[in-house]
């Protein structure tokens, strides 16, 4: 009897052991399956927040790609300084007495549009946000806001301290209709995309090739991507000064989708010359309303406007 009882007990233990192994194995399989499913679903919800540059750069990425727009919004845009309890934050400028630090561009734009009612600007090649800024006058005294783009990290760090009431972006405007990472020459107020074919000034091609100048990798976005990220369709003033890449940047802009009312465009370093810039924008429906030049080369800009925004008759503006 006792022997039979032991056999029954042994058989039951063996059966329980087999069932336990089965359930453990089943549990392991279920955990593995769960991890596979959640990792796939999680890639959309979680991993998408950690962008892979190789996936969001290059010719296959369209400028209106929703993930690209989100990448710009989440990682490369700093919001304007907010007012606190009805008090505007103070500017932290080197020269608070200087009303217009531009080299004449702001004055030319002021002739074209009713700047006293506020507006939206984009300034690319914003330097430190104060030195020779083409937009500070409008923001500081007339309630404008906008976007300041500066690719050089050293200049951008200075701009962060100025107290500008605009979006800030440590990036560059792409010279192609898609996002890309470029090598950027750090040359204070003359920084530019390396290896871009431009008219050189003080630094020769050999200096770049021999790497005598510091370079840094910078993320570039097409102009239109910034507008989508900011939900903006009208730009009252676009200041473009990128040391030779101006025409290539302009060629990426879908002018049929955006309304850029006025522009100042530096032309000195553009390999196609000032006629190349002028002809391109005239073919887009703009007219030249002025030209800002200086002997020290701190300004070599055409001023452009759409005829529909002019505050005076065409004969009022210098078009030579």
UniProtKB/TrEMBL annotation:
Transmembrane residue ranges: 20-37
Residue stretches making up the Methyltransferase FkbM domain: 123-287
GO biological process: endoplasmic reticulum to Golgi vesicle-mediated transport; endosomal transport
The protein, known as: Methyltransferase FkbM domain-containing protein
GO cellular component, one term: endoplasmic reticulum membrane
Keyword terms: Membrane, Transmembrane, Transmembrane helix
PANTHER family: PROTEIN STAR
Protein species of origin: Aphis gossypii (Cotton aphid)
Domain of life of the organism encoding this protein: Eukaryota
InterPro entries listed in its UniProt record: EGF_Rcpt_Signaling_Reg (IPR053202), FkbM_mtfrase (IPR006342), SAM-dependent_MTases_sf (IPR029063)
């Amino acid at each position: 009897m006792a022997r039979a009882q032991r056999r029954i007990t042994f058989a039951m233990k063996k059966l329980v052991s087999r069932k336990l192994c089965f359930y453990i194995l089943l549990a392991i399989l279920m955990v593995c399956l769960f991890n596979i499913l959640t990792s796939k679903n999680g890639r959309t919800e979680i991993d998408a927040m950690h962008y892979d540059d190789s996936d969001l750069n290059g010719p296959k990425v369209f400028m209106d790609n929703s993930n690209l727009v989100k990448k710009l919004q989440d990682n490369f845009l700093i919001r304007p300084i907010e007012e606190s309890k009805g008090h505007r934050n103070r500017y932290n400028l080197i020269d608070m007495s200087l009303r217009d630090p531009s080299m004449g561009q702001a004055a030319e734009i002021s002739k074209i549009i009713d700047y006293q009612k506020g507006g939206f600007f984009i300034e690319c090649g914003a330097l430190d946000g104060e030195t020779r800024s083409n937009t500070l006058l409008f923001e500081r005294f007339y309630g404008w806001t906008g976007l300041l783009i500066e690719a050089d990290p050293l200049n951008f760090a200075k701009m962060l301290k100025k107290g500008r009431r605009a979006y800030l972006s440590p990036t560059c405007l792409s010279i192609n209709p898609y996002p890309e990472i470029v090598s950027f020459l750090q040359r204070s107020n003359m920084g530019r995309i390396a290896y871009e074919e431009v008219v050189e000034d003080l630094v020769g091609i050999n200096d770049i090739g021999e790497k005598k100048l510091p370079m840094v990798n910078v993320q570039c976005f097409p102009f239109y991507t910034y507008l989508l990220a900011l939900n903006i369709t009208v730009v009252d003033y676009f200041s473009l000064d990128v040391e030779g890449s101006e025409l290539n940047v302009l060629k990426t802009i879908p002018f049929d989708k955006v309304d850029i009312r006025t522009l100042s465009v530096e032309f000195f370093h553009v390999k196609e010359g000032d006629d190349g810039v002028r002809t391109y924008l005239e073919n887009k429906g703009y007219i030249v309303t002025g030209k800002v030049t200086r002997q020290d080369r701190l300004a070599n800009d055409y001023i452009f406007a759409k005829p529909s925004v002019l505050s005076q008759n065409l004969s009022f503006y210098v078009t030579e």
